[in-house]
Amino acid sequence: VFGLSSVAQVVLGRGDFGQLLSINLGFGIGVTLGIHAAGGISGAHLNAAITLTHCLLGNLPWRKLPAYLIGQFLGSFVAAATVFGLYYDALYDYTKGNFTVTGPTATASIFSTYPAPYISLQGGFFSEFLATMMLLLGILVIHDEKNNGALRGTQALLTGILVVGIGLGMGMNTGYAINPSRDLPPRIFTAVAGWGMEVFTAGHHWWWVPVTAPILGSLTGVLIYKLFIDFHNQPVLEIGKEKGQPAVEIS
């Protein structure tokens, strides 16, 4: 809701009610609050690519995958419907009732990502792949207590800042979906809410890229972290003993 409504305000306000930074902050705030809301229940699985990665690594039972994906799907779909209702009058005024995917008054990009006109399909795929890889690396860095992990209670805020940073540096090409759960359900909503099936054909059938590229980027991010950081970490107690210091328990 925070992310999509920030995009709606920038687009429908024609730049008078926010800029790109507003969108970055909106999604960062939404992620932070989402982690606080769901962290104690599920570990805050807000991203289908990350959830699938945890299943592949054996960190999450496969039997939980359907429930998590359904929860993510419904949450994102309802968010799109909520923002649609919130800004329906503004949408109608902006488009004169003609909801389009492309063109001077296109509004489908409020809800889902679409590639920039200059970017190739391959370039867009790489953008989403790289941005999601950096997301995973950042999340693992923040939560790695064997390394220089974040202080307890700050992980949600730092993850939100991480999402803001990705948007600031890697958002121009594709809108940084970095999450199948964030992109596909709102796209389905727009298909049934008046934009039609063009939401799946625009951008050379772009819709499948934000679904597959984040999954591959997530797996690659974990692999890189394991190879270059995690395998070289020593447990905290071992480090304390090596330094000749008494071992202390940390949270």
Automatic annotation (TrEMBL):
A single Gene Ontology MF term assigned here is: urea transmembrane transporter activity
User: Would you say which domain of life the source belongs to?
Assistant: Eukaryota
Residues spanning the membrane: 20-44, 65-88, 125-144, 156-178, 205-225
Name the GO cellular-component terms. basolateral plasma membrane
- Give a single Pfam family match: MIP
Protein keywords: Membrane, Transmembrane, Transmembrane helix, Transport
Q: Which NCBIfam families match?
A: MIP (TIGR00861)
Q: Which family does it belong to?
A: Belongs to the MIP/aquaporin (TC 1.A.8) family.
Indicate what this protein is called per its UniProt record: Aquaporin-7
